[in-house]
Amino acid sequence: MSPHGNHADPEHSAPTIPNGSAAAAILAAGVGCASVSICAWLGDAIPSIAHFFNWYHPTGPLSGVSTTAITTWLMVWAFCHRRWKGQAMPMGIIGAFSLICLGVGFLLSFPPIGDALQGR
Amino acid sequence: MTVTFREFITEIHGMGFGALFLSAFSGALMVIYRLCTPGKSSPLSKSEQTLFGAYLISMVVLAWGAVLSGAYFVYPWYRAHPPAGVTDLTEYPQRSLMANPSTAGWHDVGMEWKEHVAWFAPIAMTMVAYVVIKYSSQLGRHRQVRNAVVTFFAAALFAAGIAGFFGAMINKHAPVIGGATMKLMGGAK
After folding, report:
1. How far apart are CA A85 and CA A93, in angstroms?
2. Which residues touch B166 (CB under 8 Å, ≥6 apart)?
3. Predicted-complex ipTM score
4. pTM (2 decimals)?
């Protein structure tokens, strides 16, 4: 019986979906966010990398930075999803790693911190 | 009442995609709270789950629309370099901001941060939508998944907030203008 009524709740009587698919999506999102900032920071620090990322001239290096990060995000997601789908993964470790990636992404994206790490 | 083509596209980017995306957060937050607290809140019906899935997908579309329109339409106009000899920087917002020490920070910090951190919002929101749609009311059973989803949801809001704030302030100090002029309504009599 559902805690909110007299009817059986099919959602709560259904078997639990393994967390593998969620773990893959969460890890990939963390890696994707970190990739944006790492690529941008590398481009900012090394002119030849900025030049390499200049894939669409009107947008400048942001075009290569964002495309590389999105490609990395989707590839990590697809790879992990294939391997983890239907499995129970150690979500504590994966979640913590994803949040660290997210934190690194935010910190590195903030120009005063990025510049300080470059010694400016 | 007229608007230039670049102003119009900037409005689509900022108000059409960005502001609508930000304003959608409060609704999504309430439903995610319901999904994450099955013992305290009434569970979503099948039709509510379907509707909420469509709502989250709309948010994902808005988030991607905001960053892609920003990066590939508005940003090129913003960062355009004036031809040699041009002294009127009205149509070159980045150069206009950097020409004045009192406004240079809007580019050096504001735009430099916004142009990168904004991408976190669609990436995080896509993940949140996928996990919430796939797991739906089972989120209540996966505490660590739930925590990660809520954190990334908050991160998407924070990233979009940074982008929205700096976008509005930069456009206030050095608006993106130019292109064909479109007449929206009749002029003064």
Report:
1. 17
2. B106, B110, B111, B113, B114
3. 0.93
4. 0.93
Length of chain A: 120
Provide the residue type at A38 as one letter: I
The verdict on a CB contact (< 8 Å) between A111 and B71 is no
- Contact by Cβ (8 Å): B64, B58: no
CB contact under 8 A, B116 and A65: yes
Pairing of strands B181-183, B2-4: antiparallel
> Using the beta-carbon criterion (under 8 Å), do A4 and B42 form an inter-chain contact?
yes
B105/A contact by beta carbon, under 8 A: no
Chain B contact set for A14 (CB, 8 A): 138
Provide the terminal-to-terminal Cα distance of chain A, rounded to the nearest Å.
Answer: 63
Q: Are B158 and B114 in contact (CB under 8 A)?
A: no
A29 in Cβ contact with B126 (< 8 Å): yes
**Helix orientation angle between B25-36 and B143-173, rounded to the nearest 10 degrees:** 170
CA-closest candidate to residue B176, choices B69, B102, B28: B69
Question: Which contiguous run of DSSP H or E holds residue B183?
Answer: strand B181-183
Chunked mean pLDDT (size 10), chain A, 120 residues: 43 72 98 98 97 97 98 98 95 97 98 94
Any chain A CB within 8 A of the CB of B69? no
